[in-house]
Amino acid sequence: MSLRDLARAAGIDAEYSSWRGEPTSASDEAVLATVTALAGDLQIDLRDPVAATKELERRRWSEVGPVAAVAWDGMLELPFTVPAELDGPWEIEVELAGGGVARGHGRLFDLGADGHAWPAGVVHCVRRAKVWLEGALGYHVARWKAAGVSGETFVISAPMKAFGAPGSGARAWGVFAPVYGLASADSGQAGDLATLRQLFDGVQRRGGSLVATLPILAAFLDEPYAFSPYSPASRLFWNEMYLDLRALGSGATPPPIDKSLIDYREQYRWRRAALDRVSGKLIGDHREAIDAWARANDVWDYAAFRAIGEVERKGWSAWPAEKRDRVPAIGSRDAAIAFGADPARVDSHVVGQWAMQHQLEALAEGPVKLYLDLPVGVNCDAYEVWRWRELFLMGLSAGAPPDALFLGGQNWGLPPLSPIALRKDRYRYFIRCLRHHMSVAGMLRVDHVMGLFRLYCVPQGRPATDGVYVRYPWEELLAIITLESNRGRCAVTGEDLGTVPEQVRPAMAKHGLYRLHVGQWFFPSDQGRRPEPSPAASVASLNTHDTPTFAGWWRGADIDDKRDLGLVNAEQEHADRVDREKQKAALLAFAGAKVDGDLLTEVEQTMVAVTEDLAAGAAEIVLVALDDLVLDPVPHNVPGTVHERPNWQRRVQGWADSLDPERGAPAAVAAIAGVIAGRKR
């Protein structure tokens, strides 16, 4: 036995297939660092890897009943791991969350078994005891007796498919835009929920049903400073920078803007000050309601965390020890103040979260629904890492292995959740993350859905090319998603782009998750051919926030970026440009047969044609990016860059008229008309 045997026993895949299908292996240093990160949760001693491996294998066979189990559609199949020759009674009593008890009993031999050869010659097997839970969905507790021992199992009783699963034959459409990019024409400031509502109204007037956006979660916009929507300060709280301040009666006048890009520090400074001025009155007028809501959602704890951070002006890991390591259950305003948080700052953060929740819930009441994005994780300085750091694998960072787009791999700087600690905690944190989003969204996009199965983790100090995969209990996570989806009446999309393990898409289809189709990746290279069609069970769009806009693709801006960032050599750049010109010629020929282009430029004519073609395809949901309607060539994000490109800072110029058939530019008007016609086919 070796270190790699120990890694496999610990749920780590150090060997995997690359995006080219080639065998790939992480270094011993990366494997050791990952095993070390998990060692505390596994309760093993790494000084003797052979003994540690044997101990994990012994535990695997000695754990008669699992920590957690899934009951699909209310039928629990609880696996008992026992010696194959062992007979005897088994009993299960399931305490149902809504009240009542479900019971089952029998003998182990009557269950049948799948045999597993034990190295020492002893044969163990898994016997599955079935108990009907009277159709009760929810989170239950099963208490069992078998093989002479007793135990307790957390049961996730979930519907087989998520709410609104593909298969209805729906022909829905919507638009995509980041909230920050929806600047009002009169202020030039970053967008907020007021301008988001304007977009909702425009989509509703044209018969659309969805507005998709990037994560709108809490962010560090002062010190520490991390404004990427995919590195949030929490996945449980909103970014109050997006509040509709006028609706709160703030009377704030935005300062003049003379910059083309959003300055988040400046935005946060004046918006925070405006919220501070009204928070006292709001908490005075609604004290009981706000306090009850804040207690129920741990908002006093979050507010204390943010208030202390604003004084310290650094991440929690650099705070004084008494605030860094002694994290009490706060739960009230008085406790937050006793912990050392400034009362006015605490009130302001609580009011900000309360107001954001109410404004988002008001948006959710209309016929157009919000399509939100759940990021993979949180910033290393985030609230939940401070609050529940035992759930996170400190010293590792989530990322992605090298692929065709990112040959150097990706390190996202997000501490991954421990699959062991998450499961032992009965998934409380993951459930809360889903409920937070589904309380206001009609559809939720699970970013990097492959991370529910296995997550590429890069140890601190190692290059992004030297990571390993940590395995997760994907069936349990998917069961929680389908259950919460039905409870919240929120459909689910899985972002399945990149290196996708073979079991991911079949599991998504089985459990009613939509997949993504990026039309840009399926453009033809030969004249006379059309773009490849989208699958029915998908959310289709021409691009994503991580790919070039259509106008940028047409110009070859993405190829320029690869060259400037040193990701391709001269030979590869030349080959990419030759291929791009072939695709453009093929699309122009395709567009010429579909669109009257007398009033449109070549790029406009082609954008209209491929947008209409996408809308006419089989995908049940089609999204159109406002960036494409206004033909902006600059992407919102160039993956793999931080300081090299102004990511997440661009406004969508002219967005307000893009859906108006009277005021919109000819290309935008034609594209939306094509979408409406295509969806009716």
Draw up the topology in text:
Elements: H1 3-9, E1 12-13, E2 15-17, E3 23-25, H2 28-42, H3 49-62, E4 68-72, E5 75-83, E6 89-95, E7 101-107, E8 114-117, E9 123-132, E10 138-146, E11 149-158, E12 172-176, H4 193-205, E13 210-212, E14 220-221, E15 225-226, H5 264-285, H6 287-296, H7 299-312, H8 321-324, H9 333-338, H10 343-364, E16 369-374, H11 383-387, E17 396-400, E18 410-414, H12 419-424, H13 428-438, E19 443-446, E20 454-459, E21 468-471, H14 474-488, E22 491-494, H15 504-510, E23 515-518, E24 538-541, H16 550-555, H17 557-564, H18 570-592, H19 602-616, E25 621-625, H20 626-629, H21 666-680
Parallel strand pairs: 4-11, 12-13, 12-25, 13-16, 16-19, 19-22, 23-24, 24-25
Antiparallel strand pairs: 1-21, 2-3, 4-5, 5-9, 6-7, 6-10, 8-9, 10-11, 14-15, 17-18, 17-20, 20-21
Helix pairs in contact: 1-2, 1-3, 5-10, 7-10, 13-14, 17-18, 18-19, 19-21
Q: Taking strands numbered 1, 2, ... along the chain, how are they ordered across the largest sheet? A: 7-6-10-11-4-5-9-8
Distance between the termini: 61 Å
Distinct helical segment count: 21
Mean pLDDT: 92
What form results from the Cα inertia axes?
A: globular
Radius of gyration: 27 Å
- Uncertain spans: none
Helix and strand content put the structural class at alpha/beta
The multimeric state of the shown protein is: single chain
Portion of residues in helices? 25-40%
Number of strands: 25
Largest sheet: 8 strands, mixed
Percent of residues in beta strands?
A: 15-25%
